[in-house]
Amino acid sequence: MSGCGTVRVLVTGALGFIGHHLCLHLADKGFEVYGVDNMFRGDEGRVRLLGERGVYTAAIDVRNLEALASYMLRVKPDAVVHLAALISTDESFEKPLLYEDVNIRGTISVVLASNRAGVQRLVYVSSAAVYGEPRYLPVDEEHPTNPISPYGATKLAGEHLSRTLFEGERHVVILRPFNVYGPGQSREYAGVVAKFLERLARGEPPVIYGDGRQTRDLVYVADVVEALERALEVEVDGNAVVNVGTGRPVTINELAYRMIRIAGADVKPIYAPPRRGDIRHSYASISRAVSLLRWRPRVSLEEGLEETIKAFFSEQGGAGS
Question: Which terminus of the chain has a smaller tally of CB atoms within 10 A, N or C?
Fold first, then answer.
């Protein structure tokens, strides 16, 4: 299967941060793209932009199996990328039943609807949160899974459900992104870059939880959507699990000072107590992504932060410039 203009892909969570970038990317590559979103964000600008690129977005909650299956039977996608999910670690502690409903029941619904429609490839977008606190670094796909938040637990459950329920002949490819960032990332996505950027735009210092020496693997959204495209196309003998990261850790302190410099802000980070569910150190082994998907990240952290900050200030009408 290749982006030849005849391949139909349905993307759940099409108006979300990664979903929106993915739909635009696939449309540009010649895929026939359909989006599904509950429209909770009410982002008419994204709906309009997708429409201009030939991507129709249906207002369907993924938990609604009958509506989703009916739509898939009409569209008849060759492949589905399942991105729709609740994604805040903090919120998952406060609303674990809601996270179970959306992330687990929603995934079951997507898989069953895909089976009814004869979908051949399912790409399930999981999270590095399934690993929990790493026992060794870098984290490879054979690392034990031991999530330390309800969010991570629901994403791991989604992996198991996808593998056990999906009937498509081209199997399930599960991607585990590490810390994704880029233009259009909202605070809802719970990304440290987005949180720092919001405060910098208001002239406020970034807040670092803990001592700032914890590390993260930050991967730019344009690289992630390329990995997702490869996951649609790769041929596998069975279900596959693949990390998506850079393999290069950065400390939160370093990240904060880089962003302050790029934004031209005259502030210093402030520190707060560590948060529940935060992992101390994490970065990915991407050897499987390189060998199986023929994928490597191309955007450096400096380039990605510059693009993200420039786009954010542009949307804010020049704030912070």
Answer: C
Look up the pTM and report it. 0.95
Alpha helices in 63-149 (DSSP H): 65-75, 89-94, 96-99, 106-116
CA distances from 239 to 142, 169, 311, 321 (A): 14, 10, 37, 47
Q: How many domains does the chain have?
A: 2
| Residue 151 bears catalytic tag | yes
What confidence tens digit (pLDDT) does each residue in 74-86 have? 999 999 999 999 9
Closest to 11 in 3D by CA, of 145, 110, 91: 110
Does residue 321 have a pLDDT over 50? Answer: no
The model's pLDDT over 110-122, given as tens digits with 9 standing for 90+, comes to 999 999 999 999 9
CATH code of the domain containing 178 = 3.40.50.720
Tell me which of 34, 124, 131, 151 is the catalytic residue.
151
Q: Are the CB atoms for 246 and 221 separated by under 8 Å?
A: no
